[in-house]
Amino acid sequence: MPVLDGTGGVKTVTGVYDFAVDGGAAGTLTLRNGSGDSLPNEIPAGAVVLGGYIDVTTACLSATGTMAFQIEGAADLTSALAQAGLTTGLKAVTPSFTGSTAIKTTAKRSIRVVIATAAFTAGKLSVVLFYK
Q1: Do 67 and 121 touch, CB atoms closer than 8 A?
Q2: CATH: 1.10.10, 3.40.50, 2.60.120, 3.30.2000. Which one for 12-131?
Q3: pTM, whole model, 2 decimals?
């Protein structure tokens, strides 16, 4: 359901990771937006992330690597997930539509993934967040 900027409705932002496009080297990567181009996904300053999910469509593979997803600060969407936590299907993120888990942005932010410990060799996923 599209919502116009400046309205009071809940909005959606999607960040996409695809090993075939983004590679799997250790480091911090700003996810591409859900429209398939290279532009970043963006949430405005002062937005409150209410909830969301990760949709893994191709299992993420690595010998010992981890992925942690963040929007405002380190691992605020997920803790470091090993390969076993990145199999196909829907995965939970920390904001779960409660005041105690919501995340408020202090500046314009993009969804990022931090790949650590070792590189990934496969994987494709979308991080979908709902914010107001």
Answers
A1: no
A2: 2.60.120
A3: 0.90
